[in-house]
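Retro notes, structure queue

What went well: the backlog is down to a handful. What didn't: a couple of records were mislabeled last round, so from now on we paste the full input next to the output in the thread. Example, using Alpha,alpha-trehalose-phosphate synthase (UDP-forming) from Haloferax elongans ATCC BAA-1513:
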Amino acid sequence: MTETDTDTGLVVLTNREPYVHDAPNDVTKPVGGLTAAMDDVMREIGGTWVAHGHGRADFDVTDSDGYVTVPPDDGQYSLKRLDIPDQPYEGYYYGYSNQVLWPLCHEHVDRIRASPDDWTAYTAVNEQFAGAALDALARQDDDTALLWVHDYHLALVPELVRRQTDGDVTIQHFWHIPWPPAQLFDRSPHAAALLTGLLGNDRIGFHTHGYAQEFLATVERTLPDAEVDTDALQVTHEGRTVEVYVAPVGIDTQTVDNLAESPEAERFWRDLREREGIAPDERIAVSVDRLDYTKGILQRLDAVEHLLERDDSLRGSFRLLQKGSPTREQIPEYERYQRDIFEKIRHLNDRFGTEEWQPVVYLDGRYTRAEISSLYRNADVCIVSPLADGYNLVAQEYVAANQSASGALVLSKFAGVHTLIGDDAFTINPHDTAGFAAQIEAALDAPKTERAERFQRMYEQVAASDIGAWMEHSLGQWSR
Ligand code: G6P
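Corresponding output:
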C-alpha cells in the first residue's frame, strides 16, 4: 500500500505512540518491541492507530478531529494522540500497568506495589481509550471493521467497547508479555475484572502455546461460569465464544539485514572501535536492553565476572558492549536497578580493567536502527538473558543482522523466542552463573562451521516466522 489509507477498517490501540513529536518537524521513535513491530504492520496495510501522546501535541498538524498522518515524511496511516491528564495517566501507567501487571506477569511478585487509586486510574484511562476507539471506528467506511487492542495496559477496553457496539465490529487483542501461571494471576484482587475485560474480545493472541494454556487455566480457575476448551483453545462466556490463538511476533529480516550492511552502520562501527580502542582481534559480546529488571542484566554481569575470574586469557581480549536504554525511571524499582547495573559495571572495570582495556563498555544514548544493527553485525556473540520475556526481538534482530558474519547467540530459556530458536542457540539459565559463563565461553570457542550451521538454522526459523507471518496469523481471517 503506497498511498495514505486511513479508513481500511483497521483500528489499533496501544498505550505508546509510534512517533513522538518533540519539536516542530522533529519526531523520534520510542524504544521497545511493540511499537516497532506495529509500525511495520501499519505502514503495510494502513488504518488508524490510537495511542497516548507523549510528546508535544501542539506541534501536530491534525485534521479537525485531531488525527495526524504518519510517518511524518511519508504518510501511510492515521494516528490519534490521546491527551490524558497526568492524573490518571501516572496511576494507570507507572502504577497499575507497571507496578502491578508487569511484575505479576513476569513473576516478580515481590516487586508488586498495588494502590487502590492506581486501579481507579487504570479503569479511567481504559474508559478514555474505549471512547477514542469508538470514535475511530465510527470514521471507518468498512462495515467489517476490526479493533485490535494491544497489551496489558488496555485489558478492560474490549468489554467496554463491546457493550457499546452492536456486534458489527470484530475485537481482538494481542498480549505481548508472558501470561503467568494461573495460581499466580488468580492472586490479583482484580483477576476477575481483568479477565472479563479481555473476554470482551473475539480473539486473544499470545506468543507461545505455554502462555495460551496458562491463560485458559486462569479463566477456568478464576471465572467458574466460563467454559474452557483447552484443545480447541476456546472460552465460552456469557453466551459468546472467544478464540485464543498463538502467533509469535517476528521482525522484518530483510530490512534489518540491509541496515546492518548500510554505510551508516559501517561508519558507526569504525568510529566506535576507534573511540573505545577495540583491538582487531578482540572478541566482542553485545547486549541490547531496556534497563528493566526482567532482562537479567545483573545476572549477565555476574556471569561475565565469573568468566574473567576463571579464564584470565580473556582479560584484554574479550569485552561486553552493553547498550542500555533507561525506562520507566519514575518507578523506584527501575531507578534502583539502573543504579545497581552502573555500580556493577564500575566494579567489573575496576577489578579487571587496565589503562587500555575495560571488560564492559556501557553504550548510552539514542541509537538509530542502523547503529544497533551494526553492533549485531560485528559481535562474535550476542547475549540475551531475561528472567522472563514475552518473546524478544533483540535475539531475532541479531540473527537477521549477523547472518553472514557467523556469530553465536547466548539465549535464556525463559525468553518466549527460545521456543523458536532455542535448539541452535547456546541456552542458559540466567540464575546459574557458572553455567551461564560456560555457555558464553562455549559460544566464543565453537568452531566456525558449527557456529555457521547453528546460525543458518536460526536464520531460517526467524525468516519463516517474520513480521509477515505474524500479520497473516493475526489479521488473515479479517483481511481476506
Ligand atoms: C516491552 C514489551 C511490550 C510493552 C513495552 C512497553 O517492549 O514487550 O509488551 O508494551 O515494553 O514499554 P514502555 O516503554 O511503553 O513502558
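Agreed that this is the format going forward. Reviewer comment attached to the example: The CA atoms of residues 228 and 235 lie 5 Å apart.
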